[in-house]
Amino acid sequence: MGEYGVDEGSVVAQVARLLGGKGGFGAMLRGAGRTGKLTDNFDACRDLSGRRVRHQEAEKRLAEWAADQKERELEKVAQQHIKKQLREEKLRLQEEMEAKLAADVQVHNIRGVREAVTSGLAAAGEGSKRKGGGSGGTSPLQKKKALKVWGMEEVSDDSDEDSEDGEEEERE
Length: 172
Prior knowledge:
Keywords: Cell cycle, Coiled coil, Cytoplasm, mRNA processing, mRNA splicing, Nucleus. The chain is mainly α. It has helices spanning 25-34, 53-126, 140-147, 159-171. The protein has a domain at 41-123.
């Protein structure tokens, strides 16, 4: 060692060159330790009496569910009642609309028949080419038959027969 100018018994410090950069790997390990997943599975733990926490929590949830059972049943009954009322209201409105439509159609048909009968009687009265009896008119039986057409009560030649027929219909 003498050739290097170092005496015997002296301390030599050697600095060796390391390849690989400035380091920082330790900082990465410390950072990863902080971001590690913390345990959240406390349900598997046991309490002081030796029971699992998961079982205790399940019992609590079951008790709450049972307490709310009555309320849920009342809610269900209320919903069914509301649905039933809505259904009945819808049916009632539909029946009213159908009844109104039927009444409108009936009135329209009656007017049409009345106009047709009136025009037919007027045309028959103007120039009758039929061979008839000596009376020149229709028999009372034919008048009664014509008056029995539904909705045509006010169409007649004699007002006396109308009142008689109306009284007969009321008696029946």
